[in-house]
Amino acid sequence: MKKIIAVDGPAGAGKSTVSKIAAARLGYTYIDTGAMYRAVALKVLLDGQPLSEELVDNIKIELDEAARVYLDGRNVTTEIRTPEVSRGASDVAKFGFVRKKLTELQRQMAARGSVIMDGRDIGTQVLPNADLKIFLTASVEERARRRFEELRAKGSAANLAQITEEIKLRDKQDSEREIAPLAIAEDAVPVDSTHMTIDEVVAEILRLATTTEK
Ligand code: CDP
Fold first, then answer.
1. Pocket of ligand 1 contains residue 124 by CB under 6 Å
2. CA 190 to centroid of ligand 1, rounded, Å
3. Domains and their CATH numbers in the chain
4. Which of 10, 63, 95, 166 is 20 to 30 A from 87 (CA-CA)?
5. Separation of 212 CA from ligand 1 center, angstroms?
């Protein structure tokens, strides 16, 4: 059984949805590292102060067993899902001191037991010795459509063309940054979810997690 599972990929590929379900089925802890970058971005927006090492040193980010996110003790699970925070997360994620702090926290979380951790650099940087690495992708059109539906379901105003542009910008920013860019690890299994249902992707992760060869 593979106890440490890394799921990386671009925005809207479905990482968090499938990772959450697969973790529940396996009895593993799900760790959403994007939520941690989002929490840093939210703090910057709320404080109205520029990002600094001091701000990051003093930040308190916690995730609970239901994948709720707490920033300095306050539940910010819903607040971190706005397009403004998505952009902000990609902006703060470029800084080495932010990545260093969050990477340390993520490794501590993974050390506590069996986990599925999703993000951009889990297989390449955070948990390079993961037992299973998955790189989940989908076409940009499909990813934008999913994000559009997600926002609409929440009752937020959403514009497909604008979301497509935002996703393209974030893909570019995440893939081209100097430190820990979004990249497929050499030993990752690529999964293209463009034409797959959530259940199919979950089934594939469970299959990979339970096969014996590494
Ligand atoms: O859910 P979505 O794919 O839109 O984004 P997310 O996973 O919540 O991540 C938000 C942003 O945080 C990304 O665009 C990345 O810039 C950054 N991030 C990162 O740099 N490294 C990670 N391990 C996770 C997220």
1. no
2. 18
3. 4-206 (3.40.50.300)
4. 63
5. 30
Query: Using a 6 Å cutoff on CB, does residue 120 contact ligand 1?
Result: yes
Question: Looking at the DSSP assignment, which residues form a beta bridge with residue 113?
Answer: none
Question: In a structure prediction context, what are the per-residue pLDDT tens digits for the chain, which is 214 residues long?
Answer: 779 999 999 999 999 999 999 999 999 999 999 999 999 999 999 999 899 999 999 999 999 989 999 999 999 999 999 889 999 999 999 999 999 999 999 999 999 999 999 999 999 999 999 999 999 999 999 999 999 998 899 888 889 999 999 999 999 999 999 999 999 999 999 999 999 999 999 999 999 999 866 5
CA 79 to CA 86: how far, in whole Å? 11
Q: Is the CB of 123 under 6 A from ligand 1?
A: no
Q: Return all residues near 39 (Cβ < 8 A) that are at least 6 apart.
A: 59, 61, 69, 71, 76, 80
Spatial distance between the Cα atoms of 14 and 16, rounded to a whole number of angstroms: 6
Rounded to whole angstroms, the Cα distance separating 22 from 19 reads: 5
pTM exceeds cut of 0.85: yes
Residues 130-151, buried b or exposed e (16+ Cβ, 10 A)?
A: bebbbbbbbebebbbbbbbeeb
Which residue is closest in CA terms to ligand 1's atom 6?
A: 34
